[in-house]
Task: structure prediction
Amino acid sequence: MDRAEQYLGDTSRHPYLCSSSGTRAMPLNKPQCEIYYLSSYFCYAGSLWLCVPAQRSVNLMQRVFTSRLVLLSFLFVLFSRSSVISQTMQPGSELLPQLDALAGGADSPTGRASYTSLVMTLSGADKLYAPFPSAFTKRFMLAEERVRKGKQERVSELAISMAFNRLAEIIKSPARADVDAIHQVRTTLADKAPHLITVKVSPTSCYPGEALILIYLLVANDGLISKVPSRVPKGTELASVHVAVTTGNQKSMTSLISDFVNGHSQMDVLTRVERVLSLLNL
Amino acid sequence: MRNRIGLLACMLISFLFVGCKSKYSTEQGFTIRTDDVFVDPAGNKSPAAPRPFVPVSGDLVAYVPGYVEVGSRTYYNESTDSTGTVFIGSARVPALWTHYVTFPIPCGTAHLVTSVPGFFVYDDENVFMMDLSKLTWECQHFLTPSASTRLAVQDSTPSTLTLGAGDEAPFSTAYGMPVLYLYNPDTSMAASVTASSVASDGSSATFPFPTLPSGSQLPANLYGETLLTPNASGGYDHSGFNFLSMASHQTLDSPFGVAAGWSNSSYNYSYTPDPYGDGTCVGTTTVFASGSSSSQFPIVSLYSDNKVLVGSTTIPVGIGPTTVLAYAEQTTDNYQDTLCQYNTGDYVYDTTTDQLTRAIVANSGSDSVTILDIVNDVAVGSVPVGHIPTGISLSPDQSKAYVTNYGDGTVSELDLNAMTVIATVTIGGNPISVSTANDGSVWVGGNGYISKLTASLGVVGTYSTNGKTVLSLSVGNSVSELAVTSADSNGNVYIDEVNTTATVQSNSCVLNASHQVSTLGTYVNSQNQTVRAYSRASMSSPSATNSSSALQTSNPTLIVNDGWVSVSATPTGLAVTDIATHAALMQIATPAPVTGIAVDSNIHVAYVAIPDANELLTVPLPN
Result:
C-alpha cells in the first residue's frame, strides 16, 4: 500500500466519533452553562464600569457569539468516523479511485451531483442538524459548478490551511498546516487521483470538493504529513512554515473534535461550521 | 442563579483549594497580535503587516464578577515573534481579567495605536465565545504608502523590488542588510528576502523580488510587507510597511471590453423555541449561525473571436464586440423551513443570493448589441442598432440601455426587457461614449462635442469641446460633474472636469478643471487599426469629490472609480490610486495599452483587458 492509499485506506486509525447511540447530542452542557453565566457579567471592552445586566446581556452575547467567535468545528470531519464512513472506507478500499472517477465527471450536472453527494456523505455533512444538510448540499453543488465554470475563484491552498488551522485551534490540537503542507498533500496524491487533486492544473488552488477532501484527509490522519519531505529547502529561515504535525501524547484530531461537539450545543457547532465554510468561500 | 453562585464559588475556591483549582487551572494563555495597517478616511484598511520582534509588556489582574480583585496578578515582558504575535501563558484562571499592556512601538508621526480590548474574559477552556483571548493592536497609519512598485504580474515579475523606508527609521547597513517580510492575508509569513542594496541616504532599499521558500512565484494575492533594519542590540528596527499586489493573468484572444459579474450569498441558521413543549414554536427567533460566500468573475468581449467570455464559457455574439456591461441585479431568497418540532423548536436555514444576471455587448462590426444570460451562459437576444455601436450605458433602473452608434452619429434607446429599440436620435459626429446620470439624463461624447439628452432621448443641448475628440466620459453625480477623456488634434490627451449644471445653463461647455495627461490617447494595434478607449467610467459618489487630484496623479486615459480606489489605464499601463489621498498605490507598465477595466462589487479585484497582448489581468485590490 503506497502513501496515497494509506491516506484513505487505514481505517484502523479511524475510531467512531459518533456517540454510542449514533445520534448527535445537542444539549447545553456545563461549559455552555458557564458561558451563559459569565455572559451575564460581560462588560463592554475597555470599560470596567459598564457591565450589562444579566437579562439584557444575553442578546449582546448572542451577537458577540455570532460575530466574533472564531472557533469552529468541521463537522463533516466529525462524521468521517461515523458508521457511514466506516462502511465506505474499508482498509485498502477503492475510495480514492472512486472519488477520482466521480471528480472526473463533475463537469456535467449529473456527474457533479454524484460527486458532491459522495463528498457530502464522506464528510458527514449530510448528518448535520436539519435543515442544514439539504441547504448545504445545494450550496456546495452550486459552488462546485460555479468554480468549474470559472464564475467563482478556486479555493486557495492558503484558505485551506487557514481552515485546517482554525479547526486545530478550536479543538486544541497542536497540528498546523501552512500552504506548503497543503501543497505537499496535493502533490502526493496527484498521480493517484488526477481528477480529484488538481495540483497539475492549478498549483495553488483547488475545487471546493477537493478542498473539503483535503481537510478531511489531514484531519483523518492527524496531519501526519510530516513524513512527506517538505518542499521548503533546509536552512530557509522562515519561521512561519509549519508542516502539520502530531505530538505523541495528544488525542487524535477526530477524538478532539468529538470532545468538542459533545461539549457544545448545536448552535455553537453550526456557528463554527459556518465560520469555516466562510473561510473556504463556501 | 444557583449556577452562578456555584461557579462564583468555584472560581474563588479555585485559588484556595487544589481540587477545584486543578479543574480550572490550565496551561493556556492568550495572544497579543501587533499589526500595521493603512487606513483611508472611509475606514478601509489595507492588508495587515505584522510587527515582528518588538517588545510587549503588560500587567494582568484577575477579577471575579463584581470587580473583586482576587489576587492573581501577572506581569510579563516579552517580544513578538516573526508573525508579530506574543503568547502570554500565565493567565490560567477563569475569571474576568483587567489587562494593562505596554506596547512601546513607535508608529511614526500622525499615527495611532489602538488596543482591543483592555478588559477581557478568559475561561479555563479558552473557548469563551467572544474570542477575547486574543488582543489585537493596530498601528493605524493615515499617511499614504511610500511610492514604489506595489503591483506585479505573475510570470513577468521584475527581478528586484525597491521599497521606500516609510516614515520611521531609515534603512541602514550598519548592522546588516535590511530584511523584507511578506505576509499572507491571514498574516502568516509568505516569504522573506534580504536587501541587496540600500540607498546612500537610507531612504530606499532594493530587494530581490520575493518568491516562496521553494523558489516558486508568489500566488496571486494581496500581501502585507514589513521592512526591518538590524540594530545594534541584535534585534530589528521597524523601517515601515506596505503591501504588494500580485496579479494573475489569463491568455485570451484579443480581450477588449470587460465587465465584472458577481454573486454574493448569505446563510443564516435560526431557531425559534418551543417554550411550552407542546409543538408551538413562539417567541424570539434567533439567528445563531451565519455565513457568506461571494464570487467575482470577468465577462470579456473577445474582439477578434466575435465572442464573449463569461467565466470560462464563451458565447458567440456579433462581429467585433467591444463594450460589455453586466446588469440586472437579482435577489433570490431561498427560505428553507421545517416544521416546528415538539420540544425541539423550529430550525430554519435561510439562503439569500444577490447576483447579476444579464450582460449586454456592443457588436461594433455587425451594428447590433447582444444580450446575454450570464447565469445560464447563453445569448438571449440580438438587437439591431446603428452603425458601429461603441458605448453603452444603462438607465438607473437598468430597464433601458443607451447605445452610441459611432458610424452614423446616432444614439439608440433599448428596452432591455422587450429587447427592442424604442427610440433613436441623431446627435452628432462619431458619438463614442455615453453615461447616465442618476436623474436619468444621458450624456454623450463624440467628435468635438458633448451632449445632454433626456431619458427619452430629447436633446437638451450639444456643447462644443473646442475641437477635442471625446474618448470616454462618465457622470459624477455627487458633484454634478462630468469626467471626460479627450484628445486634441495634436494627440494630446486631457482629463476634463465638466461642470454639468453650468454647461447647461450657459449652453457652452464649462470646465471646472482640465488636466493634460498624455501625448498618447489612441494607439495603433497590431492590425494597424486605430483603437480608442471604450472603457466605461463610473464615478461613484464617495469618490467623485476627490477625482480631480486623483486623475492628475494617476494620469489616466480611462478610469474606473469604485469606493476609495481608482483603477486607471495610463498611457503605458495601469495605475491603482487612493482617490481620497490622491496617492498612487500601485502602478505597472503593461505590454500594450489597456482598453477595458472593471471592478467587482466588493472591490476585491480589478479586471484589466489588454487586447494587443492577448491578456486579461486580475488585480487584487487593497480593500
Remarks:
- The first strand of chain A starts at residue 155 and ends at 156.
- Chain A has 13 helices and two strands.
- Chain A has two domains: 30-68, 74-279.
